[in-house]
Design a protein that fits this description.
Number of strands: 2
Largest sheet: 2 strands, parallel
Strand order of the largest sheet: 1-2
Number of helices: 18
C-alpha cells in the first residue's frame, strides 16, 4: 500500500487514526498499541502478503535474541561471553537474511563472471523494507548489548519494528527514540497541536512527492533512456532532474512518515536537513538520510576503529563504511561504485582539511553539489555505459543543442552548437523544463526544512488553509496521472 494511494489516504490512515484515538482517550493504552500493530501488519501484508511471515519471524527471533542478551547481563565473565556470542549470532543472522533476499543473485552473477562458474539465478524476490527493518534490528541488538537494562516487552518490540509509517523506508529509528512516548500512562487526551503539525507535515510530503518529484522523474527517465543522444543542456536537465526527484521523493516519503507518526503523537527522528545546501561532502552526509548516516557511523565506522587507529586505518574504515553504504542501497556494481566515490570524496576532504586552507563557502557548495549530482548518475544508471553516456553529455561530448529561436542572437556559436526546435527531445521536455528544474532546485537549496516548518506551526486558520491547499493540488495531480508511482527507496 503506497502512501500516495487512495486506499491509504482515504481509508487506511483515517480509520486507523479514529480507532487509535478512540481507544487512547478511554485509557485503553494496550488496546491502542494492539490497534497500531494490527494496522501495521495489515499495511505490510497489503503490499507483500507472502513476506509477512518473514517480517513476523524476524521480529520474533530478534526479540528472543535481545532477551537472551539481557538475561546474561547479570553474570560476570561467562555472561559477557554469552552476550557477545548472542550478539554476533544475531547480527550475522540478520545480515544473512538480508543477504539471501537482496544479494544472492548479485553474488551468483559476480561469481559467474569472475570465476567462470554457471550457477543458476535464484528466484528469491525481496521483502519490502527489509533493508530498513534489518538495520533497525541490528541497531537494537547492539544497543541492548551496550545497555542490557533496557526494558522491552514483546508488544512494544513488535510495535517498534512494524510501525507502519516507517516500516518500508525508514527512518532508521532507535528503540529509545520512539518507545518511551508509547508507554502506557493511564490515558492520553487528544492533543491537537501534534495532530495539526502531523497533518501539515504529511501534506507537505505528499506535495513534494506528487507535485515536485513526479515531473522530475519523467524527465530523468526519458533522459537516461536516451543517454547516447543527450546534448549538453539535456544531460544536465537529466542529471538534475534525477537529483531532485530522488530528494523530493525520499524526503517527501520521510515527511509523510514523520507526519503520520506525529498524528499518533509519536515523534520519529528527522532524516533530512537541506542536504543540497551542503558546502562539503562531510556536511552533505550530516544532512542527507541522517538516520542512515548515524547508523553507519555508530554501528560500522566506530566499531571498525573510527579515526582512533591512525590515518591509514581511518581511510580504510571510511572506504569500508561507504562500500557497505553503496551495497545497502542496491545489489549492483554501480551502487558499490557510488559508495566508493563518496568514500574517496570524504578521504580527499579530510586531507584537504589538513592543509588548513579555508575554502569560500560558495565554491565549496559548487564543488560539493557538482560531485553529488554527478555521483547520482551512477546511482540511477542501468549500466556503466548508460552512466558514461550521461556524463559525456554533461561535459559536452555529445554536442550542444539550443533553441532555434536563439540562432540569430548566437550566430557566433554556429560552429559549436546546433539550433533546433527539438533541443530537449531526448528528455521529452518543453522549453519551460529548464526553468522548472532550476526553480525546483532553488526550492531544494533555499527552502525551509520541513521539520522546522512543522514544529513552528500552530493550529490556526492559515495553517489549515495551507494544508488544504497542498492536499487539493496533490489530489488533482494524483488523480490526473495514469498510474501510481512508487517511492524510489521502496527498492532498497
Amino acid at each position: 500500500m503506497l502512501f500516495n494511494s487512495p486506499q491509504y489516504l482515504f481509508l487506511f490512515l483515517p480509520l486507523t487514526l479514529l480507532v487509535y484515538w478512540f481507544l487512547t482517550t478511554r485509557s485503553w493504552a494496550y488496546a491502542s498499541k494492539w490497534c497500531i500493530i494490527f494496522a501495521s501488519l495489515l499495511f505490510y501484508a497489503w503490499s507483500a502478503p507472502h513476506y509477512l511471515l518473514v517480517l513476523v519471524g524476524s521480529i520474533l527471533v530478534n526479540y528472543l535474541l535481545g532477551a537472551a542478551i539481557r538475561g546474561a547481563a547479570g553474570e560476570h565473565n561467562g555472561g559477557r561471553n554469552v552476550r557477545k556470542a548472542v550478539l554476533i549470532a544475531g547480527v550475522a543472522g540478520n545480515v544473512l537474511l538480508l543477504g539471501y533476499f537482496k544479494y544472492a543473485n548479485f553474488l551468483i552473477e559476480t561469481a559467474n563472471y569472475i570465476i567462470g562458474t554457471r550457477f543458476s539465478i535464484v528466484e528469491t524476490g525481496m521483502p519490502l523494507g527489509i533493508s530498513f527493518f534489518t538495520f533497525t534490528q541490528i541497531a537494537y541488538l547492539v544497543d541492548i548489548y551496550r545497555q542490557p537494562n533496557t526494558e522491552t516487552t514483546p508488544l512494544d518490540y513488535c510495535l517498534f519494528i512494524a510501525f507502519f509509517p516507517r516500516i518500508l523506508s525508514g527512518p532508521i529509528t532507535r528503540y529509545g527514540e520512539m518507545m518511551p512516548e508509547c508507554a502506557p500512562d493511564g490515558g492520553r487526551r487528544m492533543n491537537y497541536t501534534p495532530l495539526a503539525a502531523g497533518l501539515f507535515l504529511f501534506s507537505l510530503g505528499l506535495f513534494k512527492k506528487i507535485v515536485l518529484a513526479t515531473p522530475c522523474a519523467e524527465w530523468a527517465d526519458n533522459g537516461f533512456a536516451s543517454a547516447h543522444a543527450l546534448g549538453f543542456v539535456e544531460a544536465w536537465v537529466t542529471s538534475l532532474s534525477y537529483s531532485l526527484q530522488l530528494y523530493f521523493d525520499f524526503s517527501g516519503y520521510t515527511d509523510m512518515a514523520l507526519g503520520a507518526a506525529l498524528m499518533f503523537n509519536i515523534k520519529l527522528p528527522i532524516n533530512f536537513n537541506a542536504p543540497y545546501r551542503a558546502t562539503s561532502i562531510q556536511d552533505f552526509w550530516a544532512r542527507w538520510h541522517m538516520t542512515l548516516s548515524r547508523f553507519l557511523r555508530d554501528y560500522v565506522y566506530i566499531p571498525l576503529g573510527g579515526s582512533r587507529l591512525g590515518e591509514f586505518r581511518t581511510f580504510w574504515n571510511i572506504l569500508v563504511t561507504f562500500l557497505i553504504c553503496g551495497l545497502w542501497h542496491g545489489a549492483g556494481g554501480l551502487f558499490v561504485f557510488w559508495g566508493l566515490l563518496h568514500g574517496l570524496a570524504l578521504i580527499v576532504y579530510r586531507l584537504w582539511r589538513k592543509t588548513n586552507f579555508r575554502m569560500n563557502a560558495f565554491v565549496g557548495w559548487v564543488i560539493t553539489f557538482s560531485f553529488v549530482n554527478s555521483a547520482w548518475v551512477f546511482f540511477r544508471a542501468k549500466s556503466w555505459e548508460n552512466a558514461m553516456d550521461v556524463l559525456k553529455g554533461m561535459v559536452g561530448l555529445h554536442g550542444l543543442k539550443l533553441p532555434a529561436s536563439w540562432g540569430s542572437s548566437l550566430a557566433f556559436m554556429s560552429n559549436r552548437a546546433t539550433f533546433t526546435d527539438g533541443w530537449l527531445n531526448a528528455t521529452r521536455g518543453s522549453d519551460e523544463s529548464v526553468l522548472v528544474v532550476v526553480g525546483i532546485l532553488l526550492i531544494a537549496i533555499f527552502g525551509q526544512t520541513s521539520d522546522r516548518i512543522a514544529h513552528t506551526l500552530r493550529p490556526k486558520t492559515t495553517t489549515a488553509l495551507l494544508t488544504g491547499f497542498m492536499l487539493f493540488i496533490s489530489f488533482i495531480c494524483m488523480f490526473s496521472m495514469n498510474k501510481q508511482t512508487p517511492f524510489i527507496y521502496f527498492r532498497f
